[in-house]
Records
---
Amino acid sequence: MGHFTLDLKHLDIDSSGLILEIGSENGGGSTEKLYRYAESKDMDFITVDFNPEVTEKLPKYVNSYNCTGQDFLKAILPEMGCQVSFAYLDNFDYIFPGMQGFVVDRQQRRYGKLGVALDNEASAQCHLEQAFLCHTYRTPVFYMLIDDTYRRTIDGDYRGKGSRVVPWALEQGYEVVESALVGCPPWDGYVLLKIGGV
Ligand SMILES: C[S@@+](CC[C@H](N)C(=O)[O-])C[C@H]1O[C@@H](n2cnc3c(N)ncnc32)[C@H](O)[C@@H]1O
């Protein structure tokens, strides 16, 4: 989505769980928007990013963790004894077709400093691992929003960060609530998945 534009108000998000963001805001405004939504529903909100330069810039009132989303889901969340009712997965960056130059170079430098090489297969796999772990710790009604995921035709394959998550999720019984159809640059898009409830 680039900027977080989804309106959460019409979703029946289970307020007994927490709102989790993996990939904190970096100019896009997603963290603040999710924090405000959680606050309005009296829900807990956690944002996770593995880049300390990103987490250090977050407002102090936001509950944040500086680690990978996978580590958070494997080691920290189970200790908290919480369930996740809405997960926004927007992390390991994906290099869209035709994307090159300054933006990709800057991303590569940022990830390189943290010992990670940008790679689209690794991005899709990382989001799949996180989706699987969120699914394990979900509330009965659970939403998962994956950013930078798109199809080029109405019946085409999903591409981008969620290219592995969506086929897996459909096998588990998730439905696609909303998704973007994008046929030209700037490649972007998102997919909103839901399991449980009506
Ligand atoms: C596209 S940005 C997030 C943008 C933000 N959601 C917004 O809309 O403003 C991706 C972020 O994911 C972080 N990241 C990449 N891989 C990660 C991982 N495995 N776990 C946690 N954070 C990760 C990067 O450090 C970067 O800050």
Note: The chain has a mean pLDDT of 93.
---
Amino acid sequence: MLEIIIVLSLKWSESVCSQPLRTFLIVFAVNSTLILTTNIFYFKSLITGMPIPEEDTFLSKFMSSLHRTTELMDQLIMIFGFLIVSQPGDCKKVAPVLFAVSLQIVTLRFAIWILPFFLLTFVFCCFGTFLMLASKYKKWKDKQKVMEMLDQVPRYKYQPSQTAYGDAVIETSAADCAICLAPYEDGAYLRILECKHHYHQECIDQWLCLTPSCPLCKREVLRRSNSDSNV
Ligand SMILES: [Zn+2]
Ligand SMILES: [Zn+2]
């Protein structure tokens, strides 16, 4: 406000141009002074330590109406100012200081208006990203947990000439995986569950990441298995 008074005083004679910048600045300065007055009236207890006036006094009602009116006027003045500085004219060359001050006022005010939307958008985006990362982290932790438990399920290397694997038996006629339905190849890694059902290691690991039970008999696998692996 002080800036406006100084600029208008010093540049009054140079301020005649095609855009009504002088009118805008004067109206803005007067309205801002009124807003400041009403604000001081309401917050003078903070400044002077005096109690805030009773709400039903004439002065209080008047100040309240004045405050609402000046706040509304402020927004209308800003729109007026925006229209002035955005329209083509010679003020930028004829009255550069006035134009710069007017542009600064309008830009700052629009920035203040827009800032909450930017903040909200930023918070919304951050929140979405946070949820996505939290979800990914949870999936990763779950998978880690499953992989740790899978280490407790015995693993064997299949050999066509061998039928005994730990305390389980795999007959040559039944040497195939019930998940992918493919026969076991020589050297393929298998897992044999406590229920004695056997599968390709890769097939059953993927299955157990989704469902912690045997695909054939539905017996729970991961919590009950505690044998060491045997290659
Ligand atoms: Zn398989
Ligand atoms: Zn089973």
Note: Helices lie at 2-11, 21-48, 58-86, 91-94, 96-150, 201-210.
